[in-house]
């Protein structure tokens, strides 16, 4: 699939991409960590604070009404963006981690000894630690998918071992790995989960920014994602849920706005989604995320995905041509997202990250909040490059040139390239 995204024009919408770091232009390849923001998102947040700032759902004055309309309008646009049945299926949180904790904390009320929760070894800590905590509290058992040598879920081994079975109550998986880029077959696994009466949860933090999203086609019951990886502000995340399931689940946090009637003897709860949104919510952040959704919709997520495919394939080819570089995960851009993690012979990822930064190239180094996965792969940490809709081939070339230079700096083995 060929992309017709006009990257040169898109880049003009992102003020930060014109920065220089010393004598080098900024080459931003850390979008899996956080994306950059277009002018329209920056302006939407600025305009909200300048013209419409007030609390929502409380004040009856004009500003309060305007703030509420903006906040709920953002909810409606996000619901449309992911194919939700309605805005009442969209719960605002502060990030995907809180959304996944909400899922684990409320579904955990159903768990007990003998029940099982299934995750995978490639999960971000945000989709692992909350389930560990819940299983520790309830006596449920945590089990997980292993991966193949290519870095994909080992579905054959899971079937042989009966990983998803009549004791399974929850299956919670990343849609797209933030380390290996692997796109997991969520719809297929959701069918298996539903066949045994389990709830299917997906961490969409890497998937929703990169891929067209239709929650009904994805087959999940709950989907978590975060705004700052999809051009939106920090401090805003989403938990989408089937309304019937959200109505069944207990509140996660107590406080203002999540209540129906409060008496000293007890309280009743507001309707969904407000039952899960205690206190003053991230209003301006939601407005910014709504503007980000408008921007992505204007480009078209099919086109965003096509560009991501092209730039990832090019990066895999170019990095693969450097003898000292070892890419982790799938080596072809088939069922693969944009995160490319790799190691370089003789160079620690933290040192590599710092040397690349000295040439204006921003990547991440570490275990990327996926320590068990790195342990499974036998590496302590890795470097990770991740592009997005504004990434160019020239930036991938700059990355590769900087990697060769860094390797030469430490070892001299590629001197003269």
Automatic annotation (TrEMBL):
The UniProt entry's GO biological process terms, in alphabetical order, are: cysteine metabolic process
Catalytic reaction(s) noted: (sulfur carrier)-H + L-cysteine = (sulfur carrier)-SH + L-alanine
Q: What's this protein's name? A: Cysteine desulfurase
Family statement = Belongs to the class-V pyridoxal-phosphate-dependent aminotransferase family. Csd subfamily.
Q: What is the lineage of its organism?
A: Bacteria, Bacillati, Actinomycetota, Actinomycetes, Propionibacteriales
Q: Which Pfam families match?
A: Aminotran_5
Superkingdom in the source lineage: Bacteria
Function of this protein? Catalyzes the removal of elemental sulfur and selenium atoms from L-cysteine, L-cystine, L-selenocysteine, and L-selenocystine to produce L-alanine.
Q: Which keywords does this chain's UniProt record carry? A: Pyridoxal phosphate, Transferase
